[in-house]
Amino acid sequence: MAGWDDIAILNKAGIDPEILTKGYCSFDVYNDVMDAAEALYGKTACIDSRLGILPTTFNSLSLAMLSSSSLFEALQLLNRHGKSTTNGIEFFISEGDSLFFGFKSIDNQELHPSVAISILVTILKTARFIHPNKVTLECVEVAHSAREFLRPPVNSTEIQDNESYDLEPYSTANAILESYFKSPIMWGSDHYAIHFISPKAHEPSIYANHDLMLKCEQSWLEEVQSLEESKFLLSVQHFIRANLDHESLSIELLAKEFGISVRTLQRRLDLESTNFKSTLETVRKLEAVRLIKQSKKNISEVAYTLGFSDVTNFSRAFRRWFDKTPEQFRKE
Description:
By secondary structure, this protein is of the alpha+beta class. It has 2 domains: about 5-210, H-NOX domain; about 225-330, Homeodomain-like (Arc Repressor Mutant, subunit A). The protein is about 55% helix and about 10% strand. It has helices spanning about 5-15, 25-40, 45-50, 60-65, 70-85, 115-130, 145-150, 165, 170-180, 200, 210-240, 250-260, 260-270, 275-295, 300-305, 310-320, 325-330; strands spanning about 90-95, 100-105, 135-140, 185, 190-195. A 5-stranded mixed β-sheet has the order 1-2-5-3-4. Strand 1 and strand 2 form a beta hairpin. The radius of gyration is 22 Å and the shape is globular.
């Protein structure tokens, strides 16, 4: 995003920039990055972060959507390929008096309000590109409350009981979102959604290019195949992260979780140029940064949360990773 210091955001989030080059990222990463952006640039980061970019982080699918014959066709594309773009949310579309497009988190995925709203912003941005000056919304549904949306991110220096948060969460949140969506905001739904005026969603796009749309969609299908192993590695990392403090965490347990033999697991990890030991260390390293920067756990608690038998072993590993102690890192 122009004008933003990407490195400062990632440093504050405790995120290794290399993770963002892997094709897929977990929602933990998205949540942490958005929290860091909000802490540095304010609550409108969820809107500003999605301006001037493609509808998705996958270029071929984005171009297919932007060259669709209408907004309705573009949203059908995203709905059809949604499971290929993420395993954390489920898209849905329906049409009655209005065109209803939305999503909700699945599999107990934690989706921070600002991350979800940034997805809604992207959907509306796509609509405004396809139909310049013609997009009219009936309303926008938000699954969190206004108070949850305004809550300062955990890594923010903002005082948690600030005046706007305590006294006027509804009006403050409405002012932020209505300034962009230009429609009523319905807080506390069980999903996120945008309601478009239906007839306009079917009007021909001035950028429609059917051949280009088909070509880009095919390119996306080919790209998905190359990303499947990345999805597997992301699932491995997610399981390891969730079980770091379990004494039974091992390559045998991991293989059992995925229903494959240890040998097959080793082969699939080898395809990603890694192995169980390296993946475990990578997850520990990332979680160490997150916990030290963003939690109030003391160093001993962090060590045991990461599965280290004692603080000494954790401190030794941390110094090897970052050439400084956990205490020095927390003070920075």
